[in-house]
Design a protein that fits this description.
The complex is a heterodimer. Chain A is mainly α. Chain A has helices at residues 3-12, 23-29, 37-65, 69-101, 106-147, 158-203. Helices cover 81% and strands 0% of the residues of chain A. Chain A is elongated and about 95 Å long. Chain A starts with a helix and ends with a helix. Chain B is mainly alpha-helical. Chain B has eight helices and no strands. Helices cover 67% and strands 0% of the residues of chain B. The interface between A and B is large, with 50 and 65 residues.
Chain lengths: 205, 162
C-alpha cells in the first residue's frame, strides 16, 4: 500500500472528533507541575539563583564579622564568583523562559533545547572544577593558621604536609572530574545524544 | 483576550490533535497521559504569545510536536517503538483485507524516526509542503525530498507485515 492510498482510506474512515478530556480535566493539567527536561532545568536554575543569593549574603556577613584578611579575601572571591553565576544563570533562565513562551519550528526548538542543556551542563562542570582549587587554597591557609604560633609548629614537617595535601588535592580533583563527567552523562548524556540525532535527521535532506 | 477560559475552550475543541501526537510517539497509556498533560501545559505557557496569525490547529501542532520530540523519559529504550496505531480507531470497521493493509502501514509508520513520523503525520493531515516546512523549520523542497524517501520506505516496510 502507498502512503497516498493510506491517506485516502483514512479520510474515508476518519473517526469522529471525540472529546476524551473534559474542560475541567484540561484546566487541572495547566496547573500541574511540569515534567519535561527543560522545565527541570528551569527549576534547577531557580534553585541555584537562590543559592547564589544566600551565599552572597553569607559572604557579606563573614566579611563583617571576621575582619581577618584571608576570610575577607575568600568572602570577596565568593561574592565575585556568585555574581558571575547570577549573571550567567540569569541569562540562561531568560533563554528557557523565552523558549517556553514561543512556539518555534521543530528544528529551531531542537537547536534551542540542545543549546540550553549544553550551556547548563558546561556551567555545572566548570563551576565544580573551579571551586576545587579555591577550596584547596582555603583549606591550606586555614590549616596553616590553626598551627601558627602553636607548639606543634616546631616539630611540623612542612615538606611532607604540603606533599600529602597536594596529593590529596590531585586525588579529589581526579575523583570530582570523573564523577562530574559521569553524573552529567547519566543525567543528560543519552537524552542529549538523542536530540542531536534528531536534529541531524531533520537537517539532512 | 488570552484568558484561561479561551485557552480551555480552544484546547477542548482541538484535543484530537494532541491525542494523535501522543498516539504517534508513545506506546503505553501512562506515557500517553504524561505526554498529553505536558503538551497541554506547554501550550498554555505559550498561549499568551499566540497572535492568531496562524490557525490555532497549526500552532498546536508546532507546540505538540516540539514537546513530543523533546519529551524526556527515563526509559529511553522505549523509544524503539512497537506498534501504536496512529488512527487505530478506524481499523475495526474496515473489511478484513483492507484492515490488514492499514494495520501494516500503521506498523511501518511506527518504525519511522521521530522526525519522519512528524512529517508523515502532517502529510496525512493534509498540510501543504510549505506549511509542513514552516512547522518543521525546513524548506518545502527539503520536505518534498524527505517525503519521497519516506513514501518509498513505508511501501517497502509495510510489505513485511502482510
Amino acid at each position: 500500500m502507498e502512503l497516498d492510498e493510506f491517506k485516502e482510506r483514512l479520510k474515508e474512515n476518519a473517526p469522529d472528533e471525540t472529546v476524551i478530556h473534559t474542560a475541567h480535566e484540561l484546566q487541572g493539567y495547566i496547573h500541574r507541575r511540569a515534567a519535561s527536561s527543560i522545565k527541570k532545568i528551569k527549576r534547577s536554575i531557580l534553585f541555584e539563583l537562590a543559592a547564589c543569593a544566600v551565599f552572597i549574603i553569607a559572604s557579606v556577613w563573614a566579611w563583617e564579622h571576621y575582619p581577618v584578611s584571608y576570610v575577607r579575601a575568600f568572602a570577596l572571591l565568593s561574592v565575585f564568583l556568585c555574581c558571575f553565576l547570577l549573571l550567567y544563570l540569569g541569562a540562561l533562565y531568560k533563554k528557557v523562559w523565552t523558549y517556553e513562551k514561543e512556539a518555534p519550528a521543530v528544528r529551531e526548538g531542537l537547536q534551542r533545547v540542545i543549546g540550553i542543556i549544553e550551556q547548563f551542563t558546561r556551567l555545572y562542570f566548570r563551576f565544580t572544577m573551579i571551586t576545587l582549587p579555591i577550596a584547596f587554597i582555603f583549606g591550606l591557609i586555614t590549616g596553616f593558621l590553626s598551627l601558627n604560633g602553636g607548639a606543634a609548629m616546631k616539630s611540623f614537617n612542612w615538606q611532607k604536609a604540603i606533599f600529602f595535601y597536594t596529593c590529596w588535592f590531585i586525588f579529589w580533583s581526579a575523583v570530582m572530574y570523573f564523577f562530574s563527567k559521569w553524573y552529567i552523562k547519566k543525567l543528560y548524556g543519552n537524552y542529549l545524544q538523542q536530540l542531536k540525532d534528531q536534529l541531524k535527521d531533520i537537517e539532512n535532506g | 483576550m488570552h484568558t484561561e477560559t479561551n485557552f480551555i475552550q480552544s484546547i477542548t475543541q482541538h484535543q484530537n490533535i494532541v491525542h494523535k501526537v501522543c498516539n504517534l510517539y508513545m506506546n503505553n497509556e501512562q506515557d500517553k497521559k504524561d505526554l498529553f498533560q505536558e503538551i497541554v501545559l506547554s501550550a498554555w505557557k505559550g498561549f499568551a504569545n499566540f497572535k492568531g496569525d496562524a490557525k490555532f490547529s497549526t500552532w498546536l501542532y508546532r507546540v505538540a510536536l516540539n514537546t513530543a520530540i523533546t519529551f524526556f523519559r527515563k526509559e529511553m529504550k522505549q523509544l524503539k517503538t512497537v506498534y501504536n496505531g496512529y488512527y487505530a480507531d478506524t481499523l475495526p470497521d474496515m473489511p478484513p483485507n483492507e484492515n490488514e493493509q492499514l494495520a501494516a502501514m500503521h506498523k511501518a509508520i511506527a518504525e519511522l524516526s521521530a522526525i519522519d513520523k512528524a512529517l508523515v503525520m502532517l502529510y496525512l493531515e493534509d498540510y501543504s509542503y510549505n506549511d509542513i516546512g514552516d512547522i518543521m523549520g525546513i524548506s518545502s523542497n527539503n520536505v518534498a525530498v524527505k517525503m519521497n524517501r519516506i513514501k518509498t520506505k513505508l511501501k517497502e516496510n509495510s510489505k513485511k507485515y502482510l
